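Service request form, structural biology core

Requester: graduate student, group of Dr. S.
Request type: structure prediction, single chain
Budget code: on file
Notes: please return the result as structure tokens.

Sequence provided:
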Amino acid sequence: MTLKADVNDLWRRSEQGLSADQTTADDEAVLDDFLDALEAGDVRAAEKTGTEVTSWEANAWVKRGILLNFGLRETEGRSYGDVTYHDVLPLRETADLGERGTRNTPDGTAIRRGAHLGSDCIMMSPSFVNVGAHVGDGTLVDSCDTVGSCAQIGENVKLGANTLIGGVLEPVEDAPVVIEDDVSLGAGCRVTSGFRVGEHSIVGENTLLTPRIPVYDLVEEEVIFGHLPANRRAFTRMVESSVSDHDLFEGGAYKPAVVATDVEDETLEATQREEALRE
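Core staff response, request fulfilled:
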């Protein structure tokens, strides 16, 4: 059987009542093989099926495999340096990172089992990459960043300091957040609920990207939800809210929106990565 078939069979048995104390050595081997495949990048929570950022599709069986690793494992006491913690999953082994030129700085970088980090990445302290996340080659995960479960981060991406990339587990989401290649997110950005950011886009500091907030695309002159097209410069602006007519809102009420324009050459130059950091 293939790994996908093994995971789906285990999922069927779990729905029929299989519990953590009933799993066999073969069941545990399937769970471990699945996590190994995620870490190697052989398995991903979502795949791009076309040319547009909207063509990403979630792999439901991968999410099932991740959920099985919680439902069919017992919480155990574990150690990381001098710290004792309790979890169903250990932290990821990192011996392979140095071989591929990837750096994770000490005292605060945590990579959970089942997360993939590509070659030539930099992960600054403190930061966290959760199970099922895929971080592409050459990407910077800066200080105080969180990369949520199953998030798909492309190559040569810059996640500015204090950036939050949402996951799919809690709250439950159908599809992961996707950040395509060569995207730059400014400090303090929040990308949640399966939002997708197209390649070569630059997002201003403290911008919130979520399907519930409209994107005013001034390039195509349309209002869109759930994604930012490729080659856009995006930033937050306030627009009038429908509750402005309420008597309690003297002077009007406003809500956040995202404005997207063409990327300018000056903006591209300002966001270029520093190659000396990777020599």
